[in-house]
Amino acid sequence: MNGHKKHNISPCALPPPYTARHFESRIRGMEFLCFSWQRKVFPLAPFWRLFLFDCDRAASSRSVVSFSFEYRFLNLILAMLFISMPLVGQTSFVERQIYANLGNVNPSGLPQIRIPLGNNTELARFEFVFAMSHNVIPGHNGSACTEWRISGLRTCVYLDGNEDLVWIRPDMQRLMFKKEDNYQQARMSWSAAIRNAMQDVEFTNRIGQKWTYSGGFLKKISDRFAALDFITDQETILVASKRDRAGNDVVLMRTEYSGEGLLACLKLGQSSPIVFHWSSAAVLVSIEGLPAGRMSFDYENMLLREWNGNGKRTNYTWTACDGLAKSISFGMAPVRLQSDSEFRYEYDKADDVSILRIFRHDGSFVSETRFGDRGIIQKSGGKTTKAIYRNDGMGRKLVFDSE
Predict the structure, then answer these.
(1) Which residues are registered as beta bridge partners of 257?
(2) Would 213 be classed as within a structural domain?
(3) Is the dihedral of CA 96, 100, 102, 105 positive or negative?
(4) What single DSSP character describes residue 46?
(5) Considering the domain boundaries, does residue 197 fall inside one?
(6) How far apart are CA 184 and CA 170, in angstroms?
(7) Does any domain span residue 237?
(8) pLDDT in tens, 163-201
(9) Which domain range does residue 162 map to?
(10) pTM for the whole thing?
(11) What are 119-134's pLDDT values in tens digits?
(12) Packed helices 20-38 and 69-83: angle between N→C axes, nearest 10 degrees
């Protein structure tokens, strides 16, 4: 493509009085921070665009923004957090068991919403997962806004400050290949090869898969059975295709974006297109063509207030976090869920241990979970589960406490 248009796969409602330019300026600052380390390696789009809302919806707006010192400092903190983001690994059995008793929230008190967008058999073989999940990010002056993240649409590779290779996969997993290990990733059976003066990278595994990146962006995936070609705009995948036996191109996936860079359409193979509708403020208001049917979303103060889909309506009420300034400084959402259509959530703290209690609306007890530095203790259904954190080389995970 001529030039690079920013494609927003993590759209959120922008908190007033911010415009898209504020978010663009924030990301520009983080680009500068990391490019001082990366410019000798790859001319890459930074990996945090996979996670942050890189909004350029007001292309005609050329207003100059004046940032306060506090906000510039917050940018620096957020940048350092994203640079040092831990590797994403599979959750342990005990972790899934504990999360199952947290109602509809995660340990941070945010709603767990995951909306499948369908799949394509050829892409699924290479672990492409197309799903939309809910998140909340800090806004201005202690506010917060809903953010939607979609997996399967972006991927890239880059070298960090230690010249270790970092692979952001389409499923949002982040795999690291250390230079000192000759770019081998033994636990996941992957190895990496860097060629052509650091411009081309190939990832291969034991079952014969090969992922080829050029300039940091995906070009081809192949194995013994098929070869897939990709058209991308930097880290954003626009088209995935393969050749049939007659030599014709068969499109497996296609995305379309609006002039403002918002995801407008996702088409997987021969399935019906999934169409995304946005408000003039770049807020996602509805999706059509989903396997589960149409879904719509309503917001209040830039936070999700209600969504309709799967034959049901879910409502949310929110409450501000304690220690608001600390939460924002560490890039955490300054709000938590107070209630939804099924549960009521209570938050407490004792001796530096965060406590989450969950009740149904009829007052019946669901669970009490205590989150400490060393582990988690949960009471639910007359049973107490204790788990501690262990580092298995792929990041910190929960295991049953045997003490």
Answers:
(1) 263
(2) yes
(3) positive
(4) P
(5) yes
(6) 20
(7) yes
(8) 899 999 999 999 999 999 889 886 778 999 998 876 899
(9) 20-278
(10) 0.73
(11) 999 999 999 999 999 9
(12) 50
